[in-house]
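Sample 1 of the test manifest.
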Amino acid sequence: GAVVSQHPSWVICKSGTSVKIECRSLDFQATTMFWYRQFPKQSLMLMATSNEGSKATYEQGVEKDKFLINHASLTLSTLTVTSAHPEDSSFYICSARDGTSYEQYFGPGTRLTVT
Amino acid sequence: AQSVTQPDIHITVSEGASLELRCNYSYGATPYLFWYVQSPGQGLQLLLKYFSGDTLVQGIKGFEAEFKRSQSSFNLRKPSVHWSDAAEYFCAVGALEYGNKLVFGAGTILRVKS
């Protein structure tokens, strides 16, 4: 149980285009989802927290207009990187939590490369 | 501010030797703690967690960790390391008071030599 999937697992896009990453909880209802970013050889940095049906809460320094997060249902959250640039290339990981658990269940990550 | 420190960036141990990875935290609330392992290009796998109760917790793959409140530490241990344990290990801390957001340490890369 408690499986989280991400799609795609890797994506290459051209500079200036937008790319959408999906995060799904497969066997539980995720009232809260978190989006992290991990640069090579670095730790995970929380980008934003999203609660189903409400606007995401972004961490300091994360551009809301660049990283659009939608948590439209209890099993799906999406992260859209708008007008991507090479510096947005990174490993993006989502996690999900149901309302009763302290634990976050992590997705396998999405490798984004912007050329 | 909440912070998690993993003092060792790299650790190399011989296969069969014991292992201890250090994790210290600074938190203004009652924390709950996790250890995750990440292989290159992969997501995170939960090794073990501590929420409350017995301060010595057992995890998967033969790992254990001990929560020491007086030292603000949650060190990960394994009595005998296998070559397949080579990976990066992250300590993470969260608290209900901070919206259950996790703060991760910088990670420790474990190399196992045969």
